[in-house]
Amino acid sequence: MPLVVQKYGGSSVSDAEAIQRVARRIVETKRAGNDVVVAVSAMGDTTDELLDLANAVTSDAAPREMDILLTAGERISMALLAMAIRELGVGAQAFTGPQAGVITTEHHGRARIIDVAPGRLQKAVADGDVAIVAGFQGLHPETQDVTTLGRGGSDTTAVALAAALNADVCEIYTDVDGVFTADPRIVPSARKLDRVSYDEMLDLAASGAKVLMPRCVEYARRFDVPIHVRSSFSGLEGTWVTGDTAEGEDMEDPIIAGVAHDRSEAKITVIGVPDVPGSAARLFEAVATSDVNIDMIVQNVSATVTGVTDISFTLPADSVPRATKAIEADRDGIGYADLTTDDTIGKISLVGAGMRSNSGVSAKFFTALRDAGINIEMITTSDIRISVVTRAEKLDEAVRAVHSAFDLDSNDGDAVVYGGTGR
Q1: pLDDT at 363
Q2: Is 77 exposed, middle or buried (0-12, 13-18, 19+ CB in 10 A)?
């Protein structure tokens, strides 16, 4: 039988009625002649509610205990979903991440999957049951502690299971009908993409498109797992995320895949860094000790008289305290004069594989921002992406301006958002 791995996000299993709807879809897939393995997220806002509870009882929660707490949300979902499937006359077994054989690194709250030993899942499937797996979690083999995978962990769980089980497809169910050319909450006329490459999806995800998380796409590209992004609220065909177009196919890839935006980043500017070999290395070595992922970097031209320069970089806003602490701890070694932070920035990115072979894309992009009165603070590019930083309050306007400039609007009416989160 074909093997299908499905993943359902929090909005898809937000209450008992939603869980029953998902159960019916899973049973339909099973009765259509497929073996089915499911990864599931916590119901609705459960994870946020658990975080609020933790913050109410302590100001400094131990990472190990926090992971034990947060994994409870997915355990609730998996058990209820298995019960709902059984109620429809199909066998189902629920497994925690560790029970499913998900092996991770030891970093609580941000662990990475290093292996999957799917023996128990394979047995459940061989017995004719649907295997339901709690997403977002795994087990570190040496400490035997449960760990969580961080943002997008359930997506990554699903793709990792699909790779380990050699599944035919990994279906990621969300509250929108697929991957769109922009966030339909900001651009209602955004067009759904029928197909997007791993590289384009990775850049869209890394640039703020929340329908898939970057780690999930990285895993899929590495193991060549086809992803089908679709809505759990409709039966429509979604968006296929796969490798590049096969040689010989009679089609021309569109120049632009979409416009992504991100409000979750902040900017750190280190002022008065000595403009000598090794200064930048010393700065970013300090940042690396705090385990922070850096996005964009800009170094100003050195002032000839002073011999110093300013270095700005962007990073996740919640990582700013760790990064600034690490930089300040090595202030004498780096030799900088001052440090400032700014959490009122936004990033807009234009992504498309067609940029490689089409001139004029950059000019049109910057012209659209100019005409909309958007000031640019930082720029970075790759062969399939252009990203700029601007003021957060201008971000929605910038997205709409660029989307319109590249004629990405749909002719089929406004996009439908069935839930409220895009997950």
Answers
A1: 93
A2: buried
